[in-house]
Amino acid sequence: MGGADAPEDVQGGFNQALNLEWEPNSAKQLFLICDAPGHGKDICDGGDSYPNGSPDGYKIQDQMKMFAARKINFSIIRVNNTVDKMIKVMRENYDSDSMVLNVSDLEKSVATKSKAEVTKEFVAAASFILSATVGRKGGKAAGAVKRGEPLWEPKKFETGQWFSQSCYLTVKEITPARITVKNSFGDEMHVSRDILEKMDSANHFQKEVPLNMTELAELLENAGDTAFTVSFKKKVTEESVMEKLQGATAKDLDNNKFLAQLSKELTEGEDCLMTCHLVEAESSLGRSTVIDLTTSSPNKFRQVDHRTINYIIINNTKFVLKKGGKKNAAEESDDEMDGAKKKEAPKWNVKDLAVGNTFSGTSYYRATAAAGDNVTTRCQGVDITVSKDILECQMYNASVFAKEEKLSLTKVAQMLESANTACFTVCFTTKADEKLIKERL
Fold this sequence. Notes:
Blueprint: H1 10-18, E1 29-34, H2 60-69, E2 73-78, H3 84-93, E3 102-105, H4 107-112, H5 115-134, H6 142-145, E4 162-174, E5 179-183, E6 188-191, H7 193-197, E7 200-201, E8 207-211, H8 213-221, E9 228-233, H9 238-247, H10 250-253, H11 256-268, E10 271-282, E11 287-292, E12 301-305, E13 309-314, E14 317-321, H12 329-342, E15 358-371, E16 374-379, E17 382-387, H13 388-394, E18 396-397, H14 409-417, H15 434-440
Parallel strand pairs: 1-2, 2-3, 8-14
Antiparallel strand pairs: 4-5, 4-15, 4-18, 5-6, 7-15, 9-10, 9-13, 10-11, 11-12, 13-14, 15-16, 16-17
């Protein structure tokens, strides 16, 4: 915003943002690209024409608390170290249990790379942050973002249409008579044990397979809609370091074992265990966006750094990080389990079922009749009646579309590859059969 000094009117910009008319159910994301701090000696160490703070009286501490209270996701693009004091104050006052203040550091890139390269890196970082806020392109995560919103236009429903539903169930109670589970929409229901036996478990495994870091990252990127458990290291932040140090007692600091563990956590990051499913993989950035299936927080989106993964439990196998791990171990594990799957045997050891276990599975339904609020569907040879609200809000329709968009062949192929388990309709040209052509001629 100009002026004779280095600091900018950051607080004035924040005031403008806070006065925007945000939609009530929108995904709110604010970016601050900064190469200079705001006014005030509490956030600026350099020369400042307004050392007492914003000339308009705005306090950045109060503003950050307001951003957090209004559930506005906040991301900073850091260009140099002159803004470090301001970022520290912003972090200390962005008080939210369900959100994290993200900082993307471009200082090194600005010093060593061309303008075009820095721009490309910024766009990649911003795109990833937005994907973590609003979910995968195409609305794949819409069910997790806003409950009760139709996934397709209900007025276009017709019998004969195909639907798919990816279901995530967490066990809440086990009795001899029934099993109580909660789905990803927060609904509790009772299911029979045989239903869970046919689903993929995110917690159980029959064997361990060693993989190297690259193979673990590829496994995560190709998880699709299957639920899994991942162990990884949390990113070390200044706040986490201060919290650890402040929580240590004098007795703790005299304990060598405690100091060794503390040193490891402060340098490598704290171990984190999460049961989730994939939203989007960003291999170019070395991280993925997932939905945490067990958190009670309204914001369930999380980021996993591929370089910090310790192990992944998926498809009844625990894949563990080990240097020089077994090549293509994931493929071999899948092949070995094919025999059991063909025999319709349970996908996991049913004796190990416990409260807190999470399962995932996808079912496909064809609508055969409709009467009132109920729809009769056919699934795996069985007639199943479902309510229209479940069909509309929890299942994807392979026939209905809201708009038409022209794409290149490459983008069409990419969309097909990312469909995962969602059902879809595809129109394509079959390969010409020379023999058939001769017969017709």
